[in-house]
Design a protein that fits this description.
Shape: elongated
Largest sheet: 2 strands, antiparallel
Number of helices: 4
Helix content: under 10%
Biased composition (Pro residues): 186-205
Distance between the termini: 108 Å
Region (Disordered): 186-209
Strand order of the largest sheet: 1-2
Structural class: little secondary structure
Mean pLDDT: 81
Oligomer: single chain
Length: 289
């Protein structure tokens, strides 16, 4: 047993097999880590500060030992609904050692003014105290966690939950501002929703002959298809155009059927100049078929 009633946790070794005796000789003294030994603390090294007296493990207390240095103070002036004080609960044997004695639990709860929240002997928790000398692996202390806005009032602030992870030394186990004493790490924020799928491509535009179009000789698009224009490989503008040798039927002289008749290349061809000097850009097609 160390001075002050502290006992090293029996059989404890850290993650690389080092026990409390080695910590006391190399890393810790007087209940705290030496400046050069602080790197060997925290969750990655099995939290020796909770197991080795030389590194800060608090003194062991026997059952029913609620000592003045625990930090707990009865709520001043508290009485239950029947006028009983914390001293009455203790002297009547209803509470001892931070809990209700067996068979006396009926005197707890809302109907009796919740003595478990006001009387140390009945279970009122001691004020939270940051783990002495705790730092995460990057050197941040509990004070820095609060000052930089990672934690406040026992919780991690939105978008700072990532700093609660084990890779940051689990500050929720050590810092009151981050939730020490609450028993579980904060939930991580939900992942962002996936981006919406891209909109579908617009449907291909269907070519439509210009309603009522006829050339100066009265021929409409159907008659142009019968005599002068063809589509090769499919009825797409890029497959359609004038039959080889019939390009003269296009252009402004013939009211530009290539701009009005799908089978002549509407949507694909440039106007043909008068006399056929500038022809369609679509491939020429054979008159066969």
């Amino acid at each position: 047993m160390r001075p002050g009633g502290c006992v090293d946790t029996p059989g404890w070794v850290n993650s690389i097999g080092v026990d409390c005796d080695v910590y006391a000789s190399e890393h810790c003294a007087g209940g705290r880590f030496l400046p050069a030994g602080a790197w060997a603390s925290g969750v990655d090294f099995g939290e020796p500060e909770k197991h080795c007296c030389a590194c800060g493990k608090p003194p062991d207390r026997g059952p029913g030992d609620i000592s003045s240095d625990s930090g707990c103070v009865d709520t001043v002036g508290w009485q239950n609904l029947f006028g009983a004080t914390c001293d009455d609960y203790s002297s009547a044997g209803r509470c001892a050692g931070g809990a209700f004695t067996p068979g006396e639990e009926w005197t707890s709860g809302h109907d009796f003014g919740e003595p478990e929240k006001h009387c140390c002997e009945c279970g009122k928790p001691a004020p939270c105290v940051d783990t002495p000398h705790w730092r995460n692996h990057y050197g941040a202390t509990c004070s820095l966690y609060e000052a930089e806005g990672h934690c406040r009032d026992g919780a991690f602030l939105p978008a700072h939950e990532y700093t609660a992870a084990a890779e940051f030394g689990s500050p929720w186990k050590h810092c009151c501002a981050c939730g020490k004493g609450r028993g579980s790490p904060p939930p991580l924020p939900p992942p962002p929703p996936p981006p919406p799928p891209p909109p579908p491509p617009p449907p291909p535009q269907r070519c439509t002959d210009t309603p009522g179009w006829r050339n100066p000789f009265g021929k409409d698009c159907a008659e142009m298809a019968a005599e002068h224009c063809r589509c090769a490989g499919g009825f797409r503008p890029e497959d359609c155009g004038f039959v080889v040798g019939h390009e003269w039927t296009g252009g402004v002289t013939y009211l530009s059927p290539e701009l009005h008749c799908c089978i002549c290349g509407k949507g694909r061809l440039r106007p043909v100049l008068q006399g056929g000097a500038t022809l369609a850009v679509a491939p020429r097609h054979s008159s066969r078929g």
